[in-house]
Specification:
Length: 361
């Protein structure tokens, strides 16, 4: 199949491009560059071992997106393109609604006009809010904790309504738990803007000496060691699940919503110690107050993904730490800050001439 990967220059999207290529699919990337570096592109092409056209397109640019769909005949779309920082979304909710929700609407309209009716959507465990029960099943109550979470829940609902109205439209909503790790080559990985807010990139930056010590948010949770418990999943396992979901939709001609996690809860300190073993570096930390909005323990029941897609996570926490460390050690400054957009992420419309889709890379 020929697949359009929206947001394919980002962390999870770039790994998924490789999984698609490994399974013999052709990949075309559309990415606005709002949170990605052009330096990922040659690495991606090298690892994929095939041409990967990468177009600098913002999904909200209806003209540019239409030209892209007229240029290629896509069999399906994988939609990773979103702003994803929870704290930032609380400060700039309208930017998040516009980028994530408006972008999704324009994408769905363009797909429909072009007759492309298969979509894999990057959702998140954030749609469960603070779950009443763990492990979390797909039929758990949904709720919104912040504007970012709202964009994920609303996008899932928009996609669901479209599937109801257009009976030939198929969608896979993939609810990721906590993606970490990197490709085994060490050439692509997670490259957060500014100070990381998520745990694994923070640990990596402490290990490499960019940050002095980790602040552990809360040591008095009712968990194994008092620190927060999450379901970390290797990004390569996550990437493979997208191809499985895509092939499931085509094979079974059905839509699907599944959790993607390992089903295993890991505490902050367990992750710190696993990372220390994998890297041979000590991670200094101090326990500070809880972070507002954090749940004590969130982990998935991933059995539906196994039952329907035949997918299950293969990498354990040691492998996640080993690969995260390899990426960080090989790229202490990520893809180099000099070529990134600023952390403020000025969400400008890129200069796209409607009649032409520029291969900006
Ligand atoms: P990322 O920021 O690395 O990748 C997103 C990519 O989309 C970036 O390359 C960015 O430049 C691009 N993009 C953003 N808005 C765009 C737009 N309007 N048009 C075109 N391109 C646009 O993030 P990621 O970690 O790879 O996450 C991918 C998806 O998975 C996101 O939708 C995110 O919300 C979701 N998700 C991520 C996590 C996580 O912890 N990383 C967890 C759950 C869900
Ligand atoms: C966070 C977001 C969630 C989003 C997810 C993936 C919040 C409240 N939630 O979830 O919406 O879907 O990221 O992007 O921001 N921790 C520390 N020190 C740190 C960083 C984290 O102790 O410097 C702890 C946290 O308290 C938590 C665990 O590590 O217990 C994981 O944190 P994080 O990586 O931010 O993920 P989530 O909290 O699951």
């Amino acid at each position: 199949m020929r697949i359009l990967v929206c947001g394919g220059a980002g962390y999870i999207g770039s790994h998924t491009c490789l999984s698609l290529a490994e399974r013999g699919h052709q990949v075309v990337v559309a990415d606005s560059g709002v949170n990605s570096s052009a330096r990922v592109v040659p690495r991606l092409r090298r690892l994929a071992g095939m041409p990967v056209p990468v177009h600098r397109v913002d999904l909200r640019d209806r003209g540019a997106l239409s030209v892209l769909f007229a240029t290629y005949r896509f069999d399906a779309v994988l939609h990773f393109a979103a702003l994803k920082a929870v704290g930032d979304s609380c400060r700039r909710p309208l930017e998040y609604f516009d980028n994530n929700i408006s972008g999704t609407i324009v994408l769905l309209q363009t797909m429909q006009a072009a007759g492309v009716r298969r979509l894999v959507f990057s959702s998140s465990a954030t749609v469960y809010g603070e779950p009443a029960q763990v492990p979390v099943r797909e039929d758990a109550a949904l709720s919104v904790m912040n504007p970012y979470g709202r964009t994920k829940l609303v996008a899932e609902q928009l996609i669901g309504d479209l599937c109801t109205a257009d009976t030939g439209f198929r969608a896979a909503n993939l609810r990721y738990f906590n993606p970490v790790g990197a490709h085994a080559s060490g050439l692509i990985g997670e490259d957060p803007c500014g100070e990381p807010t998520n745990l694994m990139p923070y640990i990596c930056q402490v290990a490499v000496g960019v940050r002095e010590k980790l602040r552990v948010f809360g040591g008095d949770y009712p968990t194994v060691d008092g620190t927060g418990v999450r379901d970390y999943i290797h990004v390569v396992d996550l990437a493979r699940a997208h191809v499985d979901a895509l092939e499931y939709m085509v094979r079974e001609d059905r839509s699907v919503t599944v959790n993607l996690g390992t089903g295993r809860g890991v505490s902050v300190l367990e992750l710190v110690h696993a990372f220390e073993r994998a890297s041979g570096r000590r991670i200094p930390y101090e326990i500070v107050d809880r972070r507002p909005g954090d749940a004590a323990s969130v982990f998935a029941d991933p059995s539906l993904a196994q039952e329907l897609l035949g997918w299950r996570a293969e990498f354990d926490v040691d492998a996640m730490c080993r690969d995260a460390w390899r990426w960080q050690a090989m790229n202490p400054e990520g893809y180099r800050t000099s070529v990134r957009r600023t952390p403020v992420m000025r969400v400008r419309r890129p200069k796209i001439v409607a009649a032409r889709v520029a291969d900006a890379y």
